[in-house]
Structure of (2Fe-2S)-binding protein:
Amino acid sequence: MKVSFTLNGEAITADVEPRTSLADLVRGEHRCTSVHLGCEHGVCGACTVLIDGKIARSCITLAVALDGTAVTTLEGFEGDALMDRLREAFRAHHGLQCGYCTPGMLITAHDLIRRKGALSEAALRQGLAGNICRCTGYAGIVAAVAAAMDEHGDTARAAAIAAE
């Protein structure tokens, strides 16, 4: 089946099998290696992307359903100021170890901050709950996202969460 969509700002037309997942398509044929396959059931969040600006699990999204959509992987955030801030905060606050969950965490964190601004620690943890990290224990990730929230206006709350 033919499908046409935009991948990280570039028009794509692909001939795909009906069972091909978005993750397999973008990793295998378009070298978007930030899309990681973990559970392949949509539970772990390692394959998180944006479809038309909304969070989606690429492992359970069929490529044939993408016709006319805009897909953004982590590679598509080049030059995005908020994503640059998040990447730096993850580094500074030790929010990554093996890096497998990191792309999905970054996209989720970007979405949370963009949509909701500053959050309490509990709300931040709830917002990140759909992404599983097996290495860090989440403390560094939560501190990193809280630090990045600073850019969106709630410096005091972000500093308090980052200090915990």
Summary: Residues 81-163 form a domain with the DNA polymerase; domain 1 fold (CATH 1.10.150.120).
